[in-house]
Amino acid sequence: MNAKNVTDDIVNTFKNYPFETHQLFLKSYLQPSVDPLGLNSGTANITYSINPIYKKYEIKEEYYDKMYFLNALIKPEVTYFNLKEKRLEIRAIAKEGLAGLAQEVEVDGEKTSTVLNLMEASSSAFLSDVEIFKIKKNATLKHLRVINGGNIASNTYYFLEDGARVEITELASKVDYFRLKSNIIETGTGAYSEAYYGYDTGNADKIDATALIVLNARNTQGNAYQRAVMRGASRIYQKALVYNTKDGPGGRSYIEQKALLLSENSYANNIPGMQLDSNDIMAKHSAATFSLSEDQLFYIMSRGLDKDTSIQILAEGILRPIKDKINSESNND
User: Fold this and answer.
1) Range of 319's domain?
2) Using an 8 Å Cβ cutoff, are 297 and 268 in contact?
3) pLDDT class for 9, splitting at 50, 70, 90?
4) Residue 7 backbone zone (phi > 0: left; psi -120 to 50: alpha; other: beta)
5) Is the pLDDT at 11 greater than 60, yes or no?
């Protein structure tokens, strides 16, 4: 099945999914902190650790979410890379205005290739990002992404061929507004994905994060873990959907969503979903939104720590596995 047909199937799935709550996949309930269309055209400062094969490569419109990712308006220059057991670092900083970033990466080779994204925007800037990863037969990709501050929207696609593997680790901290659509499309037999998403909010952050896993071939597996620490008046929607097509018998999937509320004014909504068109699949999910208990605080404070420090230690525990992965891989050449 080609990419366009897969995309059409995804759209139809959203439209026909029978549960009202999953119409949240069709639209965002969180508006950006600034109006992107009210900003002047801006330029992101972008650097790459290795040279692209070429630029000005026309990306297909099917990869754009025009309402939120604005790429049809921005028309960013697209860079194309071919990674074969290499490490690519992409740094993008938007200081003001409306800026776009887009790249297509083809991953090949028998050893692991790594891509590290570092993205940042000021409170008066809006950075829109489109990334497409084509992971070839038996290739492995580790994708790390660190988001710091500002207003950022990202639309990411992963296409996995036979035996391909991807491990995604993402951490967003103290952003004004962040909207993510992560599309993991497994069209090859035995493809495997593992995705970890962590969000550490500021006082009034807005985050709308969607992870979509499409199991569209035999014996594929896709797992997604979303974790958030909510402070002040911050708000988050964590959405995850597994779509196992009739062409994907033998699939395996697990979704886990956790949100820790550190304030009475913070808000989190975890929305897991599964559409299983194959009878031969093992799929499950869990979701929890919770506050710190007095017993937990008492236990930590009994070690001589004040309340604020104790809260921070317990909050760190939610995101520690994700932060450890980021730190370990970021420092590993």
Assistant:
1) 3-330
2) no
3) low
4) alpha
5) no
Non-local CB neighbours of 117 within 8 Å, separated by 6+ positions: 90, 92, 131, 143, 144, 145, 146
Cα-Cα-Cα-Cα dihedral of 140, 162, 105, 192, to 10°? -50
Q: Distance between CA 106 and CA 305 in Å, rounded? A: 49
Asked if residues 296 and 307 have their Cβ atoms less than 8 Å apart, the reply is no
Angle subtended at Cα 188 by Cα 214 and Cα 115, rounded to the nearest 5 degrees: 80
φ and ψ at 315, to 5 degrees? Answer: -65, -40
- pLDDT, residue 322, reads 92
Q: How many angstroms separate the Cα of 316 from the Cα of each of 198, 229, 230?
A: 11, 8, 12
pLDDT, one tens digit per residue, over 165-213 is 999 999 999 899 999 999 999 999 999 999 999 999 988 899 999 999 9
Q: CA-to-CA distance for 154 and 129, rounded, in angstroms? A: 5
> Which of 135, 237, 142 shows the shortest CA–CA distance to 185?
135
* Beta-ladder partners of 213: 184, 242
CB 95 within 8 A of CB 42: yes
d(Cα 324, Cα 244) in Å, to the nearest integer?
A: 31
| Beta strands 97-108; 78-84: pairing state | parallel
Number of domains in the chain: 1
pLDDT tens column, 229-263: 999 999 999 999 898 888 999 999 999 999 999 98
Phi-psi region of 247 (alpha: psi -120 to 50; beta: other; left: phi over 0): alpha
Residue whose pair of structure tokens reads 């597994």 in the numeric block: 242
Which pTM was predicted?
0.89
Q: What is the CA radius of gyration of the chain?
A: 20
